[in-house]
Amino acid sequence: MAKVSLKAGTTSYIAQVFIQDSSSTTGAGLTGLLFNTASLTAYFHRDTDTTATAMTLVTMTVGTFTSLGFKEIDATNMPGWYQLCPPNTALASGAKSCAIHLKGATNMAPLALEIELTAVDNQDAVRGGMTALPNAAAGANGGLPLGDASGRVDLGKILGTAAATPATAGVLDVNVKNMNNVAATSITTINANQGTTQPINFTGTAGSALAKSDMVDIAGAAVSTTAAQIGVNAVNIGGTAQTGRDIGASVLLSAGTGTGQLDFTSGVVKANLAQILGTALTETAGLLAGGFKKFFNVASPTLTCLGVDQTGDNYARLGAPAGASVSADVAAVKTDTGNLVTRITSTLFSGITSLAQWLGMLAGKQVGNTTARTEIRATGAGSGTFDETTDSAEAIKDNMGVAGAGLTALGDSRIANLDATVSSRVAAANITLTGGQVSVDSGSKTGLRLSATGVGDILTTALTESYAADGAAPTLSQAVFQIQQFLQERAISSTTMTVKRLDGSTTAMTFTLDSASSPTTITRAS
């Protein structure tokens, strides 16, 4: 197996490979292979890959890189030798080796090629591909320094500046720019100087040496010249600015009413309350003090902190009974109110400017509002000729009994005519009145017979509760119960309306609304 060592990441690499003729007993090379020779296959595998990758070979020009190129070099002079161009991805960084395998053609011995992928470049004659080393020849500009037989190095530059020829061989002449972060131009004498150009006055020697100095400034302020004393004005103590008060064994305060002074007598500080939480008090003089006195100067107060506390169950509150809360009750009221509003359709009062004026005109015969009268007539009431003075409820009541309008003014002849007409209709329907009872007979069938007490029994006898099925025609009794319970025992949940029986719990009927918020139609469901 052939092995090659290349730097990882090498590109445009042309491998020179030898393919043997498997039918030859002398190990001769196989000639005549092309990139598309029948059954010829090529694969590569990097040591970090999980599977081999197929290479679809293409033709190439010998000596010129073409990715996946495969070409015989010289069948006559170099039989069996070929050039193969693996793809750049096969040699990319991230792996330490790449195996290449070609096989399958007639009389072809398999070609196995392993390429070691290294971090160094054996084709780099200067630094072997190691970037930590200078990329220049030793001794050249930018290259490694050269030493003599004893390992000594000639120093040509210091920080990029050529070193001057020393006055004494082997001893560098150095110009110092700074010493202890002080510019060299400010240092006149190294001996007995520290940090500035001013000398330090020493007394004594060795371990007894002392430095004497005159303190001229403190924090930039001139020091008092009083003999053997330093007068200091403290600007800050503990980081807090001072305003010139005396500081001794304890803080001494002097009474006064000026700025920065406290007004006190015998240790009791007197104060005028001018602000509360930054808000100035503007009340009339004496009222605030009087209020404090009234509120607190009570021997046995009934108002206590506990008395002010309105939480807990000791006091009636919104949110009772136990388990409820103010927020929950308010939310429930909000929800119910919202539901009620959504069920009032936008067209409910359409065309009505004032409901009060409408009701007044429909009920009373006094002359009403012109706008309301026009709106009532627009609905078709009275064929568009409604007049409250004659068509209102009050006007109709008053007109009962008036000649020409009331029932009592029909006259004897009309009453007689009405009696004859009723008798004729009753006889035609086989209805007879005998002994206070009404009998209805159609042919041989006996009809309805009322008791001697008449209609009164019907109106005072309790009906048997019953409801017609959905889609079935009801009896009179069933219709009465359905109407009654629909008006007084119903509940709505989303789009379902449930009507209860007389017991208030058993379902009698259910209806479906077309909307949970703004219903316009209702349909019986059961």
Layout of strands and helices, then pairs:
Blueprint: E1 2-7, E2 15-18, E3 41-46, E4 53-54, E5 70-74, E6 78-84, E7 97-103, E8 111-118, E9 157-158, E10 161-162, E11 178-179, E12 182-183, E13 201-203, E14 210-212, E15 217-218, E16 221-222, E17 236-237, E18 240-241, E19 263-265, E20 268-270, E21 275-276, E22 279-280, H1 287-296, H2 305-308, H3 326-342, H4 355-363, H5 370-378, H6 388-391, H7 393-399, H8 412-428, E23 431-434, E24 437-442, E25 445-449, H9 456-460, H10 476-488, E26 490-493, E27 496-500, E28 507-513, E29 522-524
Parallel strand pairs: 1-8
Antiparallel strand pairs: 2-6, 3-4, 3-7, 5-6, 7-8, 9-10, 11-12, 13-14, 15-16, 17-18, 19-20, 21-22, 23-24, 24-25, 26-27, 27-28, 28-29
What are the key terms here?
526 residues, alpha+beta, Immunoglobulin-like, five-stranded mixed β-sheet, four-stranded antiparallel β-sheet, 10 helices, 18% helix, 21% strand
Structural class: alpha+beta
CATH architectural label of the domain at 2-118: Sandwich
| Beta-strand content estimate | 15-25%
Distance between the termini: 91 Å
Quaternary structure of the protein:
single chain
Low-confidence stretches: none
Give the biggest beta sheet. Answer: 5 strands, mixed
Q: Please give the number of β-strands.
A: 29
Rg value: 60 Å
Look at the structure and give the CATH class of the domain at 2-118.
Mainly Beta
Q: Roughly how much helix do the residues carry, as a percent range?
A: 10-25%
Mean pLDDT: 78
Physical arrangement of strands within the biggest beta sheet: 1-8-7-3-4
**Which topology of the domain at 2-118 does CATH recognise?**
Immunoglobulin-like
Q: Helix count, per DSSP? A: 10
Bulk shape:
flat
